Amino acid sequence: MAKYRKIDPKIWNDEKFYTASLSCQHLFLFILTHPQMTPVGAMRTSPGGLEDELEWQSKGFPEAFPEAFQEGCDKGFWKYDRKAKFLWVPNFTKYNAPESPNVIKSWVGCWDDLPEGNTKNELFQSLKALLEGYGEGYQIAFREAFPKDYAESGAGAGAVINNISSARSFPDDWLAIGREANPKLSDEELSAAWVKFRNSRKCLGQPPMSQRFNWVGFCQNEFGVQARPQATPKENNAERQARLARELQASAG
Question: Is residue 234 classed as helix, strand or coil in its secondary structure?
Answer without folding.
Answer: coil
